[in-house]
Amino acid sequence: MMITFMNNSDSEEEPCNERTSLMSAESPPVPSYQDGLQASEAGEAQTHRKRRTGSSHSPNNAADGNMSGSSVPVRESALENEEEELTLKYGAKHVIMLFVPVTLCMIVVVATIKSVRFYTEKNGQLIYTPFSEDTPSVGQRLLNSVLNTIIMISVIVVMTVFLVLLYKYRCYKFIHGWLILSSLMLLFLFTYIYLGEVLKTYNVAMDYPTLILVIWNFGAVGMICIHWKGPLQLQQAYLIMISALMALVFIKYLPEWSAWVILGAISIYDLMAVLCPKGPLRMLVETAQERNEPIFPALIYSSAMMWTVGMAKPDTAARGPSQQTWDTAEDGRENHRSPSHSDSEISETRSPVPTHPIATLEELEEEERGVKLGLGDFIFYSVLVGKAAATASGDWNTTLACFVAILIGLCLTLLLLAVFKKALPALPISITFGLVFYFSTDNLVRPFMDTLASHQLYI
Amino acid sequence: MTLAVFFGCTFIAFGPALGLFLFTIARDPLRIIILIAGAFFWLVSLLLSSLIWFIAVKASDPNDEQLQKGLLIFGVMFSVLLQEAFRFLYYKLLRKAIEGLVALSEDGCSPISIQQMAYVAGVGFGLMSGAFSMINLLADALGPGTVGIYGDSQLYFLTSAFMTMVLIFLHTFWGILFFHGCENRRWWEIAAVVVMHLAVSGSTFCNPLYVGSLVPSYVLMAVAATWAYLLSGGSAQNVRRFLLCLQSGASPQPGS
Questions:
Q1: Four-residue CA torsion sign, A79, A81, A85, A87
Q2: How far is CA B42 from CA A447, B37, B53, in A?
Q3: Rounded to 10 degrees, what is the CA torsion of A203, A207, A212, A217?
């Protein structure tokens, strides 16, 4: 979106030369829903996953629909080769830009699961998974978990459709308020619980005034960073932390079999919501494109870096987009518990031939557009790895295997994105790999490795 | 036990690999991806070999000690062969990737060479192999206990750490040798790698007679290291120049 905006403004003011004509050629005048257009519009969040976690504590925060998917639209550059090379060159870099936060989130979740008993204790279930799994027979348990999954997915679908409707009918204030409430709950309530449990585990005493001070500062800075302006890395850190907190809540409150079935079902739903023509996510993207608005930029993890210093062209047209980047990143509208949405806007100015009048344009475009991934993806990846850490009979190999599987799935997804250049969901490949590796490592590899270790054999 | 043993064994086992990672791989995103993909390929090979072993064990009599031991030996050997097969598959994949990178690059040459990929792939295999061997041990080392209280060797953790380290190095060098053999169609290099791997795994059957497993493994590592170094363009002269800190032309180290 930002790139599109910049193109329009700059192409009007810059003399027409190679660069600008390339730019304007690439930014089609009418944003309408078409695949080709999607590819050329930067910052398209094709699939969003919006998820709201419901917890029994907050009745007013119903679980959101999960529109999930990640799309990484690659900007078409007029120079095919250059673009493809850029894609691959930036592809590797963007993959790593996603690996790091995903890894960090998983590390936080696994570390918590392995050390804090609270999150592995069974203490009731969410209202979205009403059927208990404490039944003696396997068939009944399976049935209950499938029913739980159906209810959960339906809630998610309903919430997603609700969100799309709200967005369509421009009820921005409602969405805004909803998201602020939800991040308030996460940043204050869940953090308080988390801190309490960690302190209990390590038997550290903390008095209430200190606690209030710490939680208040943490939460307030978090709200500001996420919904308004803040240093990028702080914002990223907060997003990772709230994803981890959310994942921990899921790990605690989802019963065992239900969790696995829900993970599988969510991947399938993600696939359908993103790729089917009438999927809610796709409709959301269309609407956003028609209005030429960025789609829920906040509550999406963004690794974009902004270089706004040293711009030779001081006028607002050039600077507008830069501001835009920050503003949209914190706009209230983005407080949709965003969706898994990943898009990579690839800067095109990496071409080796700079032309002068657009030095500014190049500088502007020199900013790393970075990659964006929706928080829902973070959360579900962490749920998978966390569940593996919690339930795999104390085995670290399973956790490690799931971790590698998810990273490879993410890598493959980004590769497919670069190849197909259209919206693709982020969950299916990673979750499939993760599930396959979880069950096979837990049941097949573990006995083998244990036997080898007991004889101290090496393969 | 606990922290001292934990940190000691961790750094013995993974210290050199961590150094290799930090200094040669961490800077380049493409290499990190190749590393993780290599780890993934090793994992898949382990999965398949565990599957075969599991089926064999389930299909056999659990009380027959000899049979179980035989099945274990078979499992280990089969796993080694499968790992090398997956190394070959990974080589094929990386070849294709290089062709793609060359086609996409501006100046017709790939940002990473097959030798560098061989090194990174080797490190990937080694890291995953080491991690799977060592992580559970390290987690147990963190807790209370006495090593070898039932008459087993008291050096269990230490020797495991050393074995893991040598295995990570070996995988790195085998990667270089293997890919070089595949590139230049020298089947005997490939065969040598397979034989070495079988030898190292077989020598671990001597455990807890550690002199029978660690010493040959380290000797083989030195052999593989020299061979890989020579194949990567190194020579005795380079080593001498390096040691004497003389300025020389590029002294190609594996992975640089």
A1: positive
A2: 18, 9, 16
A3: -70
Nearest Cα of chain A lies from the Cα of B244 at a distance, in angstroms, of: 38
Q: What is the pLDDT of residues B124-182, one digit of tens each?
A: 999 999 999 999 999 988 888 888 888 888 889 999 999 999 999 999 999 999 999 99
- Which of B131, B135, B201 has its CB closest to that of A459? B201
For A47, A197, A205, A278, A409, the CA distances from A286, given in Å and listed in that order, are 10, 44, 52, 11, 27
Instruction: Look up residue B241 and give its two tokens.
Output: 């120049």
Whole-number pLDDT of residue A332: 33
pLDDT tens string B19-72: 999 999 999 999 999 999 999 999 999 999 999 999 999 998 888 889 999 999
Query: B-chain residues within 8 Å CB-CB of A115?
Result: none
Spatial separation of the C-alpha atoms in residues A298 and A337, rounded to whole Å: 8
- Nearest residue to B52 via CA among B88, B84, B77: B77
Tell me how crowded residue B208 is: count the other CB atoms within 10 A of its CB: 15
Token pair of A101 as six digits:
């936060």
A401 and chain B in contact, CB less than 8 A? yes
Q: Which residue of chain A has the CA closest to B166? A: A458
Report d(CA A393, CA A446) in Å as an integer.
Answer: 10
Question: Which amino acid is it at A11?
Answer: S
- The answer to whether A41 touches A340, Cβ cutoff 8 Å, is no
State the Cα torsion A434-A439-A443-A449 to the nearest 10°.
Answer: 0
Contact at CB, A437 and B39, closer than 8 angstroms: no
CB pairs under 8 A between A and B: 116
Which pTM was predicted?
0.79
Closest residue in chain A to residue B30, using alpha carbons only: A92
Q: Which two tokens stand for residue A173?
A: 């204030």
Nearest Cα to B43, choosing from A50, A459, A422, A10? A459
Among A425, A98, A422, A393, which Cα is nearest to B36's? A98
A198-A204-A210 Cα angle (round to 5): 90
Burial class (CB in 10 A: 0-12, 13-18, 19+), A203: exposed
Mark whether A134 is an active-site residue. no
SS3 A344: strand
Compare A370 and A251 and report the one with higher pLDDT.
Answer: A251
Question: At residue B127, what is the residue type?
Answer: L
Verify whether residue A327 is a known catalytic residue.
no
3-state secondary structure of A374: strand
A183 vs A51, A215, A242, CA distance in Å?
A: 12, 14, 8
* Amino acid sitting at position A173: K
Amino acid at A347: S
- Which range has the worst mean pLDDT, A213-222, A280-289, B234-243? A280-289
Interface check for A412 against chain B (CB to CB < 8 A): the answer is no
Tell if the CB–CB gap between B207 and A457 is shorter than 8 Å: yes
Chain B positions in Cβ-Cβ contact with residue A447 (cut-off 8 Å): 50, 54, 57
